[in-house]
Amino acid sequence: MFSLQAKVAFITGGTAGIGLATAKRLRAAGAEVIIVGRREAGRTLAAELGATFLQADLTREEELVAALAQARERFGGMDILFNNAGVENTGPTIEEAGPEQLQTLFDADLKAPYAVLHHGAALVRDGGSIINTASVAGMMQMPGYAQYSAVKAALISLTRTAALELAPRGIRVNAICPGSVWSEMLPRSIRRWKSSSCCVRSSASASRRKSPRWSTSWPRTTAAISVAQPFPLTAASRRGWATRC
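The line above is the sequence of SDR family oxidoreductase; the predicted structure tokens follow.
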């Protein structure tokens, strides 16, 4: 495992799923870890890891700014910024889901990550690493994923632009694009998708078309720890050539 001794990692959405698995992984590699989450329960999780917990709802910009200020006060800055917090809203078709539902997803999955970059990039030390959590849905299309795919595609584009803008400081900016990951959100997402009309349409289409494209249209589910496995390598400064991924 790559050593991250003396490195500081700031992880949003770090109280569950990919965020928590990554926090454990980075702590094991020697990093000081700051976990940011909405729920007070995160304080106990952080204590068990020997990490720092900052409570904040990132859709509220003032709470984000306060969390970053605390991180700067305690650690002077950060070497790794894992921009991971977000929500999922799969299932409704374009006809079923109105603009107000898109707005909710936009606020959590694009506006908030943008705000983290806007306010947090200055705290990332030169030569550091920023990693955004996007999704395979941002690179492919499936029924019931219109809103989620659009927002995640925008986050992938934002990642690539940020990589260009921060390159002069030696900061690498990458996105991870996992498929379905076992987490608290997944059962709710599956229930919504199964109750929507697109599930019926997809099932009917799949029965007519026995091609690999249709047989794999629902991504393989993996464990959060599997997604977190490469993080020490991705975040290590010696990975200096990898950016805009």
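Note on the example: The beta strands are 8-12, 32-37, 52-55, 78-83, 124-133, 172-176. Residues 46 and 53 are 6 Å apart (CA to CA).
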